[in-house]
Amino acid sequence: MNAITENSLSFLRVLPRALLILTMLAAPVLAVPMVRGDLGQTIEAPSLKKKGMGFVLLVSLQRG
After folding, report:
1. C-alpha–C-alpha distance, residues 22 and 18, integer Å
2. Mind giving me the DSSP string for 33-54?
3. Residue 6, exposed/middle/buried by CB under 10 A (0-12, 13-18, 19+)?
4. Which residues constitute the domain of residue 2?
5. Model confidence over 11-25: pLDDT tens digits?
6. How many domains does the structure of the chain reveal?
7. Is 22 part of any domain?
8. How far apart are CA 28 and CA 52, in angstroms?
9. How far apart are CA 9 and CA 15, in angstroms?
10. Which top-level group of life is the source organism from (predicted)?
């Protein structure tokens, strides 16, 4: 009977910590359906105007 009591007390001592860790790990997984359930309104950054300097920089860096 003493071993059962010790095992149950050690289990009860570890249980709050295990529940906290489980909650921290499960929170992002449970939050995904809430985020995807919105009305489709997304905030996007304005698109940058292309100036064509990327290819010129790439070529000039390769030559150096």
Report:
1. 6
2. HHHHTS-S----PPPPPP-SHH
3. exposed
4. 1-39
5. 899 999 999 999 999
6. 1
7. yes
8. 40
9. 10
10. Bacteria
What one-letter code names the amino acid at 22?
Answer: L
**pLDDT of amino acid 37:** 55
pLDDT one-digit tens code per residue, 40-63: 666 777 777 776 666 776 777 776
Identify whether 48 is part of a domain. no
Has residue 63 been placed in a domain?
Answer: no
For residue 40 the two structure tokens come to 């489709």
Residue 3 lies in a domain: yes
CB under 8 A, 24+ apart: contacts of 43-50: none
Q: Which residues of 21-36 are buried (b: 16+ CB within 10 A; e: fewer)?
A: eeeeeeeeeeeeeeee
Distance CA 8, CA 46 (A): 59
